Amino acid sequence: MRKLILKMSISLDGFVAGPNGETDWMIRSMSDEGKAWIVEALGNVGLLAVGSRTFQAMATYWPRSTDVLAPPMNQIPKAVFSRTGTNIEVATTRALEDARARALPESKPDPQALEGWRSARIVTGDLFDAITRLKQEPGKDIVAFGGVELAQNLASLGVIDEYRLVVHPVAVGKGLPLFSRLTAPVDLELVELKAFKTGTVAHVYRARPTSRAA
């Protein structure tokens, strides 16, 4: 059975976003070596799991990006988690229209990269059952990138096998915590720790089998 890995950036005081979903504080401490670490990890990934809002934001950005992370983000198959179902063609079209409305750089999205987002799978229904089915499929591991609500729900269900948390050297003060929906403590085993020059520190934790949240 393949693993479910959660990759999230998090503040020093435990928030994954500001009160209104702000994530601009992450940008100041991003680094090339940190991105290289993520690219290496994505080489072992067979599916990206994202929430519907995060999907639209990513579909706006990655097909037109020249960032080192763009190739794996565009090429790896996607699964979009949505309560009501998401029309991928409509979602990607709206995302591109939104980019134009906000006067984002006019570099045209790469057609092949965009197709990687338009071919995303839609996942609805019970989240625990859906994740269980995806884990049972053959292939490389699954990485969940968010958004916040999806990450919180996955953590509360105890279905995450590995946490890859990049801690940024900033205290947000208030915002959206990752573990706010837990109903019981989750014991984790630290398996990797890597510090980067900008002050971010990657923590990789493996969930202990006996610590699944109720």
Q: Sketch the major β-sheet.
A: 8 strands, mixed
At the third CATH level, what is the topology name? Dihydrofolate Reductase, subunit A
Number of H- or I-type helical stretches: 7
- Could you report the average pLDDT, rounded to the nearest whole number? 87
Work out the radius of gyration: 17 Å
The count of DSSP E runs of length 2 or more, i.e. the number of strands, is 10
CATH superfamily: Dihydrofolate Reductase, subunit A
Total domain modules: 1
CATH class wording: Alpha Beta
CATH architecture: 3-Layer(aba) Sandwich
Strand order of the largest sheet: 5-4-3-6-1-7-10-9
Query: What class, by secondary structure content?
Result: alpha/beta
What are the segments in which pLDDT stays under 50 over at least 5 consecutive residues? Answer: 99-104
Order of helices and strands: EEHEHHEHHEHEHEEEE
Task: Please give the alpha-carbon distance between the first and last residues.
Answer: 21 Å
Secondary structure: helix percent: 25-40%
**Percentage of residues in DSSP E strands:** 25-35%
Question: What is the gist of this entry?
Answer:
With 214 residues, the chain is an alpha/beta fold. It is 32% helix and 26% strand.
